[in-house]
TrEMBL record:
Organism listed in the record: Multifurca ochricompacta
Domain CHCH: 31-64
Alphabetized UniProt keyword annotations: Cytoplasm, Disulfide bond
Record GO biological process: mitochondrial respiratory chain complex IV assembly
Protein name (record): Cytochrome c oxidase assembly protein COX19
Length: 91
């Protein structure tokens, strides 16, 4: 009897990194305000993310501005057709 992992993993299993890589956590709360607004919106809209996409853009903009994630084009993030609230409008 084997414990710990399924037998299919014992041979030929390769670990691969995530597509976008890892990024630092926001230990100093630099983007907490944006995160809280986004999560509150999700909570108030029964987790319907389409209603909160503009807040998601603001949150990601904050993360990119503060070096918490690599800067990327909005079209690559699926948010190029949205306006942000303008709280952080730097590239």
């Amino acid at each position: 009897m084997s414990f710990g992992r399924p037998p299919s993993i014992s041979t030929g299993f390769q670990v691969t990194p995530p597509n976008r890589g890892s990024f630092p956590l926001d230990h100093y709360g630099e983007c907490k305000e944006f995160m809280t607004k986004y999560l509150d919106c999700l909570k108030n809209n029964s987790s319907t993310s389409s209603e909160c996409r503009h807040l998601n853009k603001d949150y990601l903009n904050c993360r990119m501005h503060n070096g918490l994630m690599e800067k990327d084009e909005w079209k690559n993030l699926g948010l190029d057709n949205l306006k942000s609230d303008g709280l952080i409008n730097r590239k």
